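Ticket opened by: R.M.
Priority: normal
Category: complex prediction / small molecule

The reporter submitted a protein together with guanosine-5'-monophosphate and asked that the result be attached to this ticket for the collaborator who will pick it up next week. Submitted input follows.
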Amino acid sequence: MNKDGFLIVISGFSGAGKGTVVKRLVEEYGYSLSISATTRAPREGEEDGREYYFKTVAEFQNLIDYNGFIEWAQYVDNYYGTPRKFVEQEMKEGRDVILEIEVQGAMNVKKQYPNALLIFITAPDAKSLKDRLAGRGTESEEIINKRMKRAAQESEDIDAYDYIAINDDIEECVKTVHSIIVSNKCLRDNNLEFIDNIKGELKAL
Ligand code: 5GP
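Result attached by the on-call engineer:
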């Protein structure tokens, strides 16, 4: 049986509420969450090392140079990257790790980890995305527009995801995503080697 942790990539349009879904998955089901590095400025209430590791462009570049990221991407006006060490260590120790990253990064992860599970979270319609973004009050009108444009581009890559979850009701969405992860773990772990072992054990009884 494969004892390595499972790698779960969660993406979604800005404003789809994926941050809330991920937070709940971590709190309720104990998934391990990778904290990304970013060159974006902290929003009010965000803390270094909790939401992100906030870096200067030079620090970020240095991490790229030293192969410190599993993947990194530019999103709107900033860079975001997944620190390699934490993810590899957690998976080696058998913990299931969630990466909350955008589409380019997700595609990159899938190439390196073909067993990774890719889930895309969306709001029920485009208008609620924009309303949620504006309602959050953390971004300027200009940034909101850039993020909506980016959402339009990202929608082209959704086909590459294994599952799409619609976040109409947060409780439902959290349960759905957890169920997707659990069933995919069974699928992966029910491999032939495992069955062969049981066959051998049964014969030896
Ligand atoms: P935000 O600025 O709203 O926190 O994040 C902007 C976008 O960057 C979101 O779609 C978020 O999922 C994505 N993101 C956060 N961390 C990473 C990362 O490490 N790598 C990539 N590729 N995207 C990330």
